[in-house]
């Protein structure tokens, strides 16, 4: 059960090798979290992530989970919830793709969409249903500012995040009053292994900064979190910019 400040005792991470998710888990373990499930495709990286968190004093278990196999989600996640209440689910899986390649090879674009949107919709609904059944908990979904406005440089990835963002907002409205808190997190460019080969964007942030914002959002029971916060204003301006102007901007 979460404490009065919204910090969970138990955490389920969907996307157990995500740098943002692991930074968040480390931060929450330092506060109060004692039980963590890391769900992802079995790999040495997943096991190492679990070992690193165990070294911080948490009980950590790994769960074989595949975003691209939605038919398994209810069974896989159901087993986690059957072990006891889960105070927080962090949906952190996703792939960036390669815009130029994915335009030439549509099946790669489909994989981005299926991972970032279809798989996330499935996992979020299963998790939300379980949280509602237990009567409490938070579902935190990592979206992106890329979903705020279609841009030439990453519209395949951005469109998948736009769908996820809209879905999560609607899910939050559907669960309002049930005891389940839903929070959308919209980071800008995050310095990580996923973006290591990309040119850094203005207002770039770090996994640790996103983790800090997530903790603050939990304490405040926020519905939307921007990282950094100034991106709310920046994206508001871009959202309303004429398309002819947006095409000329280096974004």
Automatic annotation (TrEMBL):
It is an enzyme of class 1 (oxidoreductase). One of its GO terms (molecular function) is oxidoreductase activity. Its EC number is 1.1.1.333. Keywords: Oxidoreductase. It holds the Pfam family adh_short. PROSITE patterns: ADH_SHORT. The keyword Oxidoreductase applies. NCBIfam families: PRK07904.1. Belongs to the short-chain dehydrogenases/reductases (SDR) family. PANTHER family: 5-KETO-D-GLUCONATE 5-REDUCTASE, DECAPRENYLPHOSPHORYL-2-KETO-BETA-D-ERYTHRO-PENTOSE REDUCTASE. This is Decaprenylphospho-beta-D-erythro-pentofuranosid-2-ulose 2-reductase. The lineage of its organism: Bacteria, Bacillati, Actinomycetota, Actinomycetes, Kitasatosporales.
